[in-house]
Amino acid sequence: MAKGNKKRKKTFLTDVQTLRKRARAHIERGAVTDGYSADRETVLKLLNEALATELICVLRYKRHYFMATGLEAQSVAAEFLQHANEEQGHADELAARIVQLGGEPNFSPEGLAMRSHAEYVEGDDLVDMIKEDLVAERIAIDSYREMVAYCGNDDPTTRRMLEGILAMEEEHADDLVSLLEHFGAS
Ligand SMILES: [Fe+2]
Ligand SMILES: [Fe+2]
């Protein structure tokens, strides 16, 4: 190994002894080590807001799934159901990460709609429902993008999880635009 390389490595990495010592201190904090440089309280608050958003989205998509009626409703209803299940998956991922970071996931129905970024709108007909879902997805996309930027390199695990969710919300928005185009309503 070149001499210069060795030097760079030394200044970049924490030595083994210090790493071992740090890991033994505060083991009750679990995954949250001294090297965690994000503002944990803020990350937990953001994750709980995202959790509320996902739960509201599950409820709205479920409502739309059961209320979708008419000749062409079947394929749209199937899309609503798939989205509902995927939003539930996001909610579960967020809740698990909150616990991993030493927080508590807020599943309280009280104030749920206030904590959520997206709204619960029932919609009058099929096209209206799709439009409301699209608005909600666009809100989620923007808020996840901001959260990803906030986490940056301070909490790469949370950031990667949020990036995965963000990619799926973008797919959802795309699906909904296709549906609107199909109905000639975009
Ligand atoms: Fe989601
Ligand atoms: Fe979504």
What attributes characterize this protein structure?
mainly alpha; binds fe (ii) ion
Radius of gyration: 21 Å
- Count the beta strands: 0
Helix content: over 70%
Mean pLDDT: 91
Task: Characterize the main sheet.
Answer: none
Anisotropy-based shape: elongated
Give the count of helical stretches.
Answer: 7
User: Low-confidence parts, pLDDT < 50 over ≥5 residues?
Assistant: none
Portion in beta strands: under 5%
Question: What is the quaternary state of this protein?
Answer: single chain
Distance between the termini: 60 Å
**Elements, N to C (H/E):** HHHHHHH
* Strand-pairing-aware structural class: mainly alpha
Listed once per kind, the bound small molecules are: fe (ii) ion
What this model shows, in words?
The protein has 186 residues and is mostly helical. Helices cover 71% and strands 0% of the residues. It is built from seven helices and no strands. Helix 4 (73-100) runs antiparallel to helix 7. The termini are far apart. The model has no long low-confidence stretch (mean pLDDT 91). The chain binds fe (ii) ion (FE2) (2 copies). One fe (ii) ion binds at residues 54, 57, 87, 90, 140, 165, 169.
Layout of secondary structure:
Layout: H1 3-12, H2 16-24, H3 40-67, H4 73-100, H5 112-115, H6 126-151, H7 156-182
Helix pairs in contact: 3-4, 3-6, 4-7, 6-7
Residues 57, 83, 87, 137, 140, 169, 172 line the site of one fe (ii) ion.
Quick take:
This protein has 7 helices and no strands. It is mostly helical and 186 residues long. It binds fe (ii) ion (FE2) (2 copies).
